[in-house]
Amino acid sequence: MHKLSNPRTIKMKQASAHHDSQGDLQHTEQHRSGRRGRLFESGRMKLLVLHLIQQSPKHGYEIIKEISDLVGDGYSPSAGTIYPTLTALEEMNCISLLDAERKQYQITDYGDSYLKEQQDMLLALLQKLRLRREIHNNDQLIDIHRAMENLKTALRLKLNIANLKPEQIHQIAEQIDQAAIAIGRL
Questions:
Q1: What is the Cα Rg of the chain in Å?
Q2: Do 132 and 72 contact (CB within 8 A), yes or no?
Q3: d(Cα 93, Cα 109) in Å, to the nearest integer?
């Protein structure tokens, strides 16, 4: 039987400056539309922020805007994600304040070398974001986008029913699995 999580019970991790064993930040992002999901794997947001600062010194709000533009689809990282990421990068000596009064950050020599070490991961992330934008902006796929939004809405509404029976949950999962198989065969 498939397990489905009730969206109301999924708690978003706070984007604090806690580190895992490699010092990567754990991020769970939220879209403006309220949809929840993990867009950035552990450490990827940190790499993206460092990459943007490498291009030119930036303020936190500029980073939020540039990431929003890079990702598209109405996505915007929260200040609660970006500012702890900046703090973590500063603690790692990857960035430093260029203008303390205006909180403008610049990359350090160590940050530059760290980014070079992580170049393959960064390039893969940038490619993923580019493809995501292309798919979202492709007018030929508008019917697919509409259908996906309809499916998400139907699932949200159904999963919010307090007395949903295990058999119904299994049937929903089966229908989604069958649709995935049918699409794969096209």
A1: 20
A2: yes
A3: 9
Q: Is residue 2 part of a domain?
A: no
- Which residue range is the domain that position 180 belongs to? 141-185
pTM of the predicted structure, to 2 decimals: 0.57
Q: Measured between alpha carbons, how far is 142 from 135 in angstroms, rounded to an integer?
A: 9
Burial of 60 (0-12, 13-18, 19+ CB in 10 A): middle
Residue 157 within a domain: yes
Number of domains in the chain: 2
Residue 34: closest CA among 71, 7, 13 = 7
> Quick check: 26 pLDDT over 80?
no
Q: Are residues 16 and 83 in the same domain?
A: yes
Q: Are residues 21 and 100 in the same domain?
A: yes
Tokens read off for 11: 């708690």
